[in-house]
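User: Could you check the structure of this?
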Amino acid sequence: MSKQLILITAPFNCGHCARAIKELPTLCEEKGWEFVEMKNEKEDKPEDRLPVDLYPTIMIRVEGEMKDILKGYNQNKILTELKKY
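Assistant: Sure, the predicted structure tokens are below.
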């Protein structure tokens, strides 16, 4: 089964993003999820930026289908979501 946790990080120095980058790869590995990090860059044109309004944004994708989008970083909430799949 293909399970991905996609982390979208800010184009600026974001403490919550830094914490997520530090903690999520290990958590994903333990739970059997692929970890993917994507970063919105300051240089990106507005139309090229990923469509998020809060950082970090975490997307849960299973078998190519987007299942959930979590805004902000809350490890307990993420674990609850991962357990559903």
